[in-house]
């Protein structure tokens, strides 16, 4: 199976040089590597430049509304677990309006792969600040939120207990392909953070600057060590590669409220007589 | 499942009147009055008696006032009655929140705490029967302390007054606490002591037909009706007064292979439903007003992407948070008109618990056949009541979505079909891949910003409403004699009260649409021929139903009785409003 | 700020006709056609000419097709005209997306790429003038390569044709690129080369009044109008076609001491506005349909808790995501009826850029005076256009909220006042503490579930609508001669086209409400006296405006012209629809 | 100033024994300690049993709608920074429907204090599972989400870059009072996680079990060490006390996207000519 077997006839309407082209290619390559037949594949997105991607993949695709791709994909995958379900979108879609759904999707650990093309900007609506736009950039461009610290989405995702977390760069095709493949194979909720450039609303050279701030995690990095993962994403640089993969049966990173053996069930009789307000 | 048109032919012999009893029990949260109500209803159902029970609470979860009103009778009951035949009250001061729910008549039996010297409020009315006083509470130096369970005593006294045997109560208790038989045994002595008192007054004995019946709440009926219609995916977020739809499905849906998710909010809940239904699985959510408001944008997506969804809205009172446990009929505007842009949806109304099952079937039928969102408007009054009903056998002809095969052609949203609905492409079907979208799209599902295509797609989507209007032209219920000259138009849970209203006021007949949008206008116009006077009745301050009808047809000289919700409308109130000389002032 | 009623007295002398020119430029994204449009408009404004510019794009952010249509004239302009006087097109194939926006007439000047052999589409119409061809593009072996900027050439050709001096262009460029003077200098040779060509045809020269005018978009006017009315807090979330309201305020609000937050979504945006206004600060948000849908529940809170808010909705086409950059008038239902429960709100409509400032003043006036949500319905057609307008001086009598002092009494939500609005308790005021709530509440603001209180509070809240209706009975604009016998009822951005329609069709007069809800019904009834024929005109597939009027008054025999949006309605289209024999089929 | 000077006349309608009583007391004590005058105080909540609290505090209070207390308080505090603004609510209100607002409120670092009364249940709506309900409890009681891992809200809040994070127990009055005091004094967004019991929908002894799983952070614990804070909340027990307090001028915990000196501003000329979709 070839990547192009998973492409529709539609020509992407992204700007020439947009990072999303690479993601489309990497994703279809990974899916082809995994021999996912179009009819067994669902690609779900919200709204944004990046969210146009499902239109270019031959699949049961759904270009939904802004910020709601995860709930919709959760419903689909829960009702039809046999479908390979990939959710794609942008940083605005996923980390601003859609942020509230992310920790919950992770908690449910539905076997979805969520790919965020993070270009640090709202591309489709013409360059407003997104939750990952850097402070300096907001200030110098007079964007809204010039005092708001950017989010660290990978740290948030790890802290929500995500079982598979990886980061890649839209300019590095083999790396992307590999990350997507592993994420899709992972039998639970998987998250891939893609550093993507926006040639139109980010400064010239933005994508290269992202790359300069990135480094590949070394061979000896232990992807099963949650503590190490958290440290790896807190140092202001972009670690690339599989950042965390939960070993089978291990507790979630968000292990704050573990099960308690001493737990006693409530008194069912009392409950019956209570009002519903 | 047939439209049940309760027309009494003009010259029909008068029916034998229904025999029924209204029992009200008021107490504090800890008194367990709800349990008494539940058990009495169960016992009635056992004997083949009908009945219904409504509950009311103060604001506290526990420790506030609490009351139940139940009515038991030998005919199907969906109105709790105006006058209380038996009132048990552990503390007179608890009564104050139940103004409007209890009224005594000359022959009412009043059961009070022996040592309670509280003064009965005026609005309660008065009985000519002597008050029966019983030492429910235990006192220590004038202060009430925990004693024997008051609710067991009250249960015993009511059973005894009704002439029901101890064994019936014992059985009901055993069933209710099947997991705690010791608890029942511990409490039976208290029951017996009160049951065996000498001087308990007797009240009318009701005799059922002997075939055990089923007790169901509106929310349970909605949940089960949906399952029977093919529901296999549910997502919801708790909200009063709808939560029991989800709770029932958590218990019952997995057994038929369905899946259920408690979502993080209502946007997500309807989102999951849209996703599951995109996957080909009949899906639903249930909520109340605040949740429905949050679902607005997603409702548009369901319609735009032509994905069937069923949305149950158990209406409560007020905008914003309002009065969560109270009933109202004020989400009608939102159901019909809510959401940006032009998109079709259908709206159904629920009459009572029995109808709730039917209406869910109809909802799935429309959603699956027409691939759009269908809203079912229930309300707190139907949702939270317990009603005794006949057993049901599920229909076999479940709604079925038209599934795409390659013969159905290449375009998901084909415009040239003889029918505005296209075969649905269920994921997994080879060759059927396409993109569904909330963006305006071409026949193939590709995004477009072409004004002409937008117009054509709007035409196609709205043509569904014409199809639905055609299919549902008889989806209305009429009550009363065909030659009655006074007409009442109402919807939803007003049904129960109006059914009894026309029985007692044969000069009236009633029209109740089952489908509110598209409205069965022809049936309505046909029905209103020959009326000398017409009134709309609803629980909405703005008169949403009335104004909606104004946009559809000539409503000159039709009077509007519209008030805020909170309490359902009683026959007493309706009577006085209809008798009032001036029509309610119209609001623009 | 007065209601500008453009009534031509029956026997008025005919006005001298407006002289105007329509110029259309079509290219690909990289061609910079928007810049040409901008500069031409600026140059017109400099000379005291009026004009307006609309833009249209393909789906790509960059690299897609792009076109501008601008019209320049010696009278205020708020309609871009039907026929194109000058069409500049760099590539004929780019034209295809602009069907409906450009039409040639006999004397149109057509400027095309010298080497382009593309065939002009039929729908474009034809001109009798010879086509002017110019070598815009640079080719290398038949393939187009980057060359000199096409837009500078086109600008030069149009200036030359108009007879405008080079210095005017130079000045406009210098202003536009004040931060990059070198860029201008680099490009002037290209400009001059084209400007100095011998054979450029001349077109009508327009002469302005010489007083420089202002160019403003609808969104800028909304932002500035709000500031002038006292806005000091704004929160919003980007969405086409409203984002520039926020962007303008990011630049301009801090200077007057206001604060602005880009929220994480629209629920939050309106939430912040409610919070800021609870704090006593005049506050607003701006959005488009999808955002408005998300704000539904919060809108109810604003009304229930009696907190003034202003919500600007720049309508776009379709439900869900629809067609984001296209115009439509289909959020009217949601604005008037959206949201669970019964709650009052007011709804205003925007006619054009000039009116946008006025209407914002009115919006704040109503919100602050009546303590409820006020929706302002703009649309993509108004929001995104650039219009030349006279200068404005801000009014000094800004709306002011009635601030509580201890004399105003102890209850925040007092029912007994002679007025449904109570003094607003601004945090910080000693002795004024209270609880605002989305829960139904007593006069003191404490939660209640009492049906009687709910009814009384609903009465109080809805009495505001009566007050508003009273204050706004003249908030409508009428166009045309008082004795015209054909009537058109429309709203919002239809204004511009209809203003010219009645000028050319004196048998018509027009009614346009500025306030849509509560509707100025008396003014409407008065206006429609003596009409032989009436038609509603709107861009909504369902005919939302028409059906809304049906719910308010007798609309028998009133015809509805209602279609989906996408493109605004032109006079040409209106003419043919009015001439069509059969009225559009009514939808239920 | 006394705590009762900050109480309205309303009697709380909570169940006897509800943990929220303690929070009301602790909060009014802390506010009285800080001499916050009623007219300078705003208490904002969503909907839930816990969200009824503002009705009992003499202040400019606002009992808003479910899940939206943070945006509303953000608007208020931004427009009226001189008001002491406290946001209160439950785990359902704040971590389920309202979760999407929390990281953003933290990013803005508006000077609010957010107190969550986490009773691990939806109290007001009659005992459905909340995001912090434990797995075992959901399973044994047949609640929804029986496969969903609970959230670790404190970890999430830390990962979002919150400058002040503390945890306390509704049964420990002096501790609560102290935590609230410090949180309100902190000049930025502060978060207090309160372990609160629900006597009606949680099993008997639930509150004590929370206490048994808790421990007070030792004296030597360094509250300025973000890494330590993250570790302290990942061990399945409940650390009580100030978990993190960002030193003046330090970078946020969520330091994944720091400012980059090499950043170059975008080409402003290009932007002007782009379409708005
Ligand atoms: C409810 C709603 N709000 C706002 C929008 C407008 N909108 C569309 S895409 C977008 C953000 C796009 O940013 P991102 O998700 O980062 O995608 P990108 O274009 O950068 O790939 C916004 C705000 C919308 N469509 N719906
Ligand atoms: C939009 C909306 N959805 C749902 C509800 C119903 N609701 C009210 S409170 C609540 C949850 C309460 O849980 P929590 O916040 O933990 O407060 P607690 O009662 O436990 O203190 C829910 C779901 C609502 N009022 N509004
Ligand atoms: S605007 Fe940016 S994100 Fe959007 S298509 Fe262009 S380059 Fe890509
Ligand atoms: S139900 Fe639980 S949280 Fe609510 S008041 Fe009662 S004890 Fe408190
Ligand atoms: Mg982005
Ligand atoms: Mg809780």
List key phrases describing it.
heterotetramer, A: 277 residues, alpha/beta, Rossmann fold, 8-stranded mixed beta sheet, 10 helices, globular, disordered C terminus, B: 588 residues, Pyruvate-ferredoxin Oxidoreductase, domain 3, 4 domains, 7-stranded mixed beta sheet, 24 strands, 32% helix, disordered N terminus, binds thiamine diphosphate, binds iron/sulfur cluster, binds magnesium ion
Question: Overview of this structure, please?
Answer:
The complex is a heterotetramer, with 2 copies of chain A (277 residues) and 2 copies of chain B (588 residues). Chain A has 277 residues and is an alpha/beta fold. Chain A has one domain: Rossmann fold (3-Layer(aba) Sandwich), CATH 3.40.50. Chain A has helices at residues 20-33, 69-79, 91-97, 102-108, 135-141, 153-159, 173-185, 206-212, 226-232, 268-272; strands at 41-45, 60-63, 84-90, 112-118, 164-169, 190-195, 214-216, 238-245. In chain A, strands 2-1-3-4-6-5-8-7 form an 8-stranded mixed sheet, with helices on both faces. By secondary structure, chain B is an alpha/beta fold. Chain B has 4 domains: 20-195, 3-Layer(aba) Sandwich (Pyruvate-ferredoxin Oxidoreductase, domain 3), CATH 3.40.920; 215-389, Rossmann fold (3-Layer(aba) Sandwich); 406-471, no CATH class; 476-585, Rossmann fold, CATH 3.40.50. In chain B, helix 1 (33-46) packs parallel to helix 2, helix 3 runs antiparallel to helix 4 and helix 5 runs parallel beside helix 11. The longest helix of chain B is centred in the C-terminal third of the chain and has 21 residues, at 451-471. Chain B is globular. In chain B, the strands form 4 sheets. In chain B, strands 7-6-5-2-4-3-17-10 form an 8-stranded mixed sheet. The model of chain B is unreliable at 1-5, 7-13 and 583-588 (pLDDT under 50). Bound molecules: thiamine diphosphate (TPP) (2 copies), iron/sulfur cluster (SF4) (2 copies) and magnesium ion (2 copies).
């Amino acid at each position: 199976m070839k990547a192009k077997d998973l492409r529709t006839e539609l020509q992407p309407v992204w700007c020439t040089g947009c990072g999303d082209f690479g993601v489309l290619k990497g994703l279809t390559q990974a899916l082809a590597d995994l021999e996912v037949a179009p009819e067994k594949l669902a690609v779900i997105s919200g709204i944004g430049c990046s969210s146009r991607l499902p239109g270019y993949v031959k699949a049961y695709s759904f270009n939904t509304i802004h910020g709601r791709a995860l709930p919709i994909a959760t419903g689909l995958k829960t009702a039809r677990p046999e479908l390979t379900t990939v959710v794609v979108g942008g940083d605005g879609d996923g980390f601003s309006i859609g942020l509230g759904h992310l920790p919950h999707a992770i908690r449910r650990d539905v076997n979805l792969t969520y790919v965020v093309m993070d270009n640090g900007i709202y591309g489709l609506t013409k360059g407003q600040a997104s939750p990952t736009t850097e402070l300096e950039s907001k200030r110098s461009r007079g964007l809204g939120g010039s005092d708001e610290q950017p989010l660290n989405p990978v740290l948030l995702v790890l802290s929500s207990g995500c079982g598979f977390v990886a980061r890649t760069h839209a300019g590095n095709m083999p790396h992307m392909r590999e990350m997507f493949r592993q994420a899709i194979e992972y039998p639970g909720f998987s998250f891939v953070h893609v550093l993507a450039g926006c040639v139109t609303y980010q400064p010239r050279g933005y994508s290269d600057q992202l790359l300069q701030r990135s480094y590949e995690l070394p061979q000896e990095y232990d992807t099963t060590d949650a503590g190490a993962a958290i440290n790896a994403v807190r140092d202001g640089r972009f670690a690339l590669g599989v950042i965390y993969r939960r070993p089978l049966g291990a507790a979630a990173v968000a292990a704050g409220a573990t099960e308690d053996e001493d737990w006693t069930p409530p008194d069912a009789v009392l409950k019956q007589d209570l009002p519903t307000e | 499942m047939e439209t049940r048109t309760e027309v009494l032919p003009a010259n029909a012999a008068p029916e034998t009147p229904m025999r029924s009893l209204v029992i009200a029990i008021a107490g504090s949260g800890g008194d367990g009055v709800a349990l008494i109500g539940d058990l009495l209803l169960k016992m009635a159902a056992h004997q083949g008696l009908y009945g219904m029970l409504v509950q009311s609470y103060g604001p506290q979860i526990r420790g506030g006032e609490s009351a139940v009103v139940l009515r038991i009778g030998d005919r199907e009951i969906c109105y709790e009655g105006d006058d209380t035949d038996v009132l048990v009250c552990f503390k007179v001061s608890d009564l104050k929140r139940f103004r409007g729910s209890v009224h005594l008549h000359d022959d009412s039996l009043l059961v009070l705490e022996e040592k309670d010297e509280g003064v009965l409020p005026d609005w309660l009315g008065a009985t000519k029967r002597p008050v029966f006083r019983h030492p429910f509470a235990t006192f220590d130096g004038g202060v009430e302390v925990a004693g024997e369970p008051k609710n067991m005593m009250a249960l015993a006294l009511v059973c005894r007054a009704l002439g029901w045997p101890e064994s019936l109560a014992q059985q009901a208790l055993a069933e209710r606490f099947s997991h705690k038989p010791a608890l029942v045994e511990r409490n039976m002595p208290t029951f017996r002591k009160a049951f065996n008192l000498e001087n308990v007054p007797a009240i009318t004995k009701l005799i059922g037909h002997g075939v055990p019946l089923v007790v169901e709440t509106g929310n349970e009926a909605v949940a089960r009706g949906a399952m029977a219609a093919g529901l296999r995916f549910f997502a919801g977020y708790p909200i009063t007064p709808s939560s029991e739809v989800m709770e029932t499905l958590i218990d019952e849906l997995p057994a038929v292979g369905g899946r259920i998710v408690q979502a993080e909010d209502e946007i997500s809940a309807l989102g999951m439903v849209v996703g599951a239904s995109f996957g080909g699985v009949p899906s639903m959510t249930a909520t109340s007003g605040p949740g429905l408001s949050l679902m607005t944008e997603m409702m548009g997506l369901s319609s735009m992407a032509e994905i069937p969804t069923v949305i149950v809205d158990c209406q409560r009172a007020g905008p914003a948070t309002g009065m969560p446990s109270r009933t109202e009929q004020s989400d009608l505007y939102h159901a019909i008109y809510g959401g940006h842009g032009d998109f079709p949806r259908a709206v159904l109304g629920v009459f009572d618990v029995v109808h709730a099952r039917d209406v869910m079937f109809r909802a799935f039928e429309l959603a699956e056949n027409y691939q759009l969102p269908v809203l079912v408007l229930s309300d707190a009054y139907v949702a939270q009541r317990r009603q005794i009903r006949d057993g049901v056998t599920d229909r076999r002809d479940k709604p079925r979505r038209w599934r795409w095969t390659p013969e159905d052609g290449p375009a998901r949203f084909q415009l040239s079909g003889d029918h505005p609905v296209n075969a649905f492409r269920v994921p997994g079907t080879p060759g059927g891949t396409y993109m569904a979208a909330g963006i305006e799209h071409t026949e193939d599902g590709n995004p477009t910003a072409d004004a002409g295509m937008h117009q054509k797609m709007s035409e196609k989507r709205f043509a569904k409403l014409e199809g639905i209007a055609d299919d549902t032209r008889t989806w209305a219920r009429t009550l009363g004699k065909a030659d009655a000259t006074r007409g009442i138009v109402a919807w939803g849970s007003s049904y129960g009260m109006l059914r009894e209203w026309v029985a007692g006021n044969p000069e009236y007949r009633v029209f109740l649409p089952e489908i509110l949008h598209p409205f069965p206008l022809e049936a309505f116009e046909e029905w209103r021929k020959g009326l000398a006077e017409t009134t709309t009745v609803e629980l909405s301050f703005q008169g949403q139903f009335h104004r909606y009808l104004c946009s559809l047809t000539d409503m000159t000289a039709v009077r509007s009785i519209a008030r805020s919700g909170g309490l359902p409308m009683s026959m007493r109130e309706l009577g006085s409003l209809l008798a009032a000389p001036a029509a309610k002032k119209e609001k623009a």
